[in-house]
Structures are given as structure tokens and as C-alpha cells.
């Protein structure tokens, strides 16, 4: 399957939202239960590092970063989101999106990426581990989804080129 990793455009939102809804339906992608409108999604994500995997005019997956805090000291720390459409799974789209997201994050001064993933989502955990994320901890019973307390695995990646200490 031929596709390109490109910058997300506002006009991609309908397809991006559909892929997000597919993730919600799995019950293992997020604690959210509804997809936001464009304005809310846009305001909750960094203006850079918004990517889509596109084949012709079809979005097959997307990735973006959210700030972890409004405090200036954490300006280089962001949370990762990577979603792949059902039809795009198993085609290395997630790998190529995450690789490009890491590169874009570093080009934009992000020194730490983090992800909070349900441990049952082994494909996502393994994907992040392939890109030098490490397990930073676990949260037990951090929140409820559909009335059930759920755990998350916290993964983190420290840049080797940005914010070196």
C-alpha cells in the first residue's frame, strides 16, 4: 500500500475524527467516550507535529502531540497520540507515523514524549518501545471506562538531541 506522511490539514478533520471513533470503539485506545469537534481538538493539540498517513485522498492514520502542562518549564514535554484506521492496520502506518512524529517533535524543541496506554493495547505498547520509549511506570485504577477501573502504562522517550542534560 502506497501512502505518504504529511502535515494534517483542517480539511482532514472528518477522516481523522472517524479514525478516532474507530479507536474509541475498541475500548482500549482512550478514556474518552466521544470525539471532540475540530475547535476543541485543535485547541488541545500543539500547532506543530500534526501528521496524517495519506493514500490519494484517504487518511489511513494520524498522529499528534498535546502539551502536558501550560507551565513554561514543561514546554518541551508532550503527550503522543497515534491512531490507525482499521483498514490501515498491519501495514506499518503506525510505525511510520510515530517515527515522523518523533522527528517533528525534536525539530520543534520537544525533549520528552510521553504516552499513557492501556496495558491490553499491546500493539501500541510494543510500537512505542520500538522507538526508544521506556516504561516509566504504571497507574493502577487511574480512571473508569464504562464503569470499570482501568490501569495504564506510562511510557516516555527522552530526546538524545533536544534538551540534553
Order of helices and strands: EHHEEEHEHEE
Report the total helices: 4
Largest sheet: 7 strands, mixed
Q: Give the end-to-end Cα distance, rounded to a whole number of Å.
A: 41 Å
Examine the coordinates and then state which fold CATH places here, giving the name of the CATH topology of the domain at 4-115.
Answer: Aminopeptidase
Structural class: alpha+beta
Strand content: 25-35%
Arithmetic mean pLDDT: 97
Alpha carbon gyration radius: 15 Å
Binned, the helix content reads 25-40%
* CATH homologous superfamily identity of the domain at 4-115: Gcn5-related N-acetyltransferase (GNAT)
Task: Please state the second-level CATH architecture of the domain at 4-115.
Answer: 3-Layer(aba) Sandwich
Strand count: 7
Query: Uncertain runs with pLDDT below 50, 5 residues or more?
Result: none
CATH class of the domain at 4-115: Alpha Beta
Strand order of the largest sheet: 1-2-3-4-5-7-6
Topology record:
Elements: E1 4-7, H1 13-26, H2 38-43, E2 51-55, E3 58-67, E4 77-84, H3 93-107, E5 112-117, H4 122-130, E6 134-145, E7 148-158
Parallel strand pairs: 4-5
Antiparallel strand pairs: 1-2, 2-3, 3-4, 5-7, 6-7
Description:
- With 165 residues, the chain is of the alpha+beta class.
- It has a domain at 4-115: Gcn5-related N-acetyltransferase (GNAT) (Aminopeptidase, 3-Layer(aba) Sandwich).
- It is 27% helix and 34% strand.
- It is built from 4 helices and 7 strands; from the N terminus they run βααβββαβαββ.
- The protein has a 7-stranded mixed beta sheet with strand order 1-2-3-4-5-7-6.
- The chain starts with a strand and ends in a 7-residue tail after the last strand.
- The model has no long low-confidence stretch (mean pLDDT 97).
Amino acid at each position: 500500500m502506497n501512502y505518504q506522511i504529511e502535515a494534517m490539514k483542517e480539511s482532514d478533520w472528518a477522516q481523522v475524527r472517524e479514525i478516532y471513533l474507530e479507536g474509541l470503539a475498541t475500548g482500549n485506545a482512550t478514556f474518552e467516550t466521544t470525539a471532540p469537534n475540530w475547535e476543541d481538538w485543535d485547541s488541545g493539540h500543539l500547532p506543530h507535529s500534526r501528521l496524517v498517513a495519506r493514500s490519494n485522498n484517504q487518511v489511513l492514520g494520524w498522529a499528534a502531540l498535546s502539551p502536558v502542562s501550560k507551565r513554561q518549564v514543561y514546554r518541551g514535554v508532550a503527550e503522543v497520540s497515534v491512531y490507525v484506521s482499521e483498514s490501515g492496520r498491519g501495514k506499518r502506518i503506525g510505525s511510520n507515523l510515530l517515527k515522523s512524529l518523533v522527528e517533528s517533535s525534536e525539530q520543534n524543541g520537544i525533549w520528552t514524549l510521553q504516552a499513557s496506554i492501556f496495558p491490553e493495547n499491546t500493539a501500541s505498547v510494543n510500537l512505542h518501545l520500538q522507538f526508544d520509549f521506556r516504561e516509566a511506570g504504571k497507574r493502577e485504577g487511574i480512571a473508569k471506562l464504562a464503569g470499570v477501573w482501568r490501569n495504564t502504562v506510562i511510557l516516555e522517550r527522552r530526546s538524545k538531541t533536544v534538551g540534553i542534560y
